[in-house]
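Give me the fold.
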Amino acid sequence: MQVVKYAFQQHGDDRGMLVALEEYYDIPFEIKRIYYMYDTKEEVHRGFHAHKNLEQILICIHGSCKVRLDNGTEQKIVLLEKPYEGLYIPNDMWREMYDFSPDAVLMVLASDYYREEDYIRNYDEFLNFIREKSNDR
């Protein structure tokens, strides 16, 4: 499984740092939704789903967290701890976010609006979806 982590361009001087993100330039899709998580307890795990069509970029803009990615055949764990790095998550990828630091703020840039029908929230259904998609190719 290839994991794509973007290092965004940083601009800084004696006033501090700035990261600007532009769709189709820094982000490989049109951004239709932005949301973020904060005050997540260290023992809490989030996610536990995949998307049929949606793509995302996850950026831990403060603190740190881990993301477990699963494509149905292999898993990888990615540490997000730099506010200028983004993790690209394509569709058809199971994700779990966990091990949040007390100060973590995890921002998500999404390629589409919230659509419940795009979610796969059961892991066995996810595996079946991946198998069926592979058989269609």
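The CA atoms of residues 63 and 104 lie 4 Å apart.
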